[in-house]
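Here is one chain, start to finish.
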Amino acid sequence: MTQEQWTRVDSYFDELFAPPDAALDAALKATSEAGMPLINVAPNQGKLLHLLARLVGARSVLEIGTLGGYSAIWLARALPPEGRLLTLEVNPAHADIARANIARAGLAEQVEVRLGSALITLPQLVEQGAGPFDLVFIDADKASTPDYLSWTLRLTKPGSLIIIDNVVRNGAVSDPDSANADVQGIRRALAMVAQEPRLDAAAFQTVGVKGYDGMAIALVTSA
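Its structure:
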């Protein structure tokens, strides 16, 4: 199996289930033209997030890591008219691009892009009594994922879904001796998930246009 074949299969799936979309395509174009890293979820992964949000009947979503707003658009489109999505972004330039992309998609009234380090914003949300959120998507710097998860547990409720992206790290996640801070951050977060009695979870590997990676999905089962 090769990257070329993975990409070809992804393209086939996208044609069937995530065909070209003006707002999403414009968001990717604006992200690329701004020189931002194209590390957003793939179209079929965005569609998966959208379906998961619909399956849990999400009315409030928290996203940690906005980038250009691509996944935020997918998630916000799953919300009812009164639903709200809060997405956290540390980079001012990225936040500006994301706000423009989200507005172009007609979602500015439902989505707030909040600027600042999530390690500062998340404790503020807890202090303010924000949430509980029905779905949380964690897709920021991987070394800090355990900290994001700890705060997320204080911002969710039984029935909430927590999704952690990029957990396979091209297979390196299975190496306990990895010197990579992102790999070790993901390993610590996954261990936390596995040991947390309030969570029931699974992790899985994926291949596709984004290469070899995967996600973890955890259901909050108790307070």
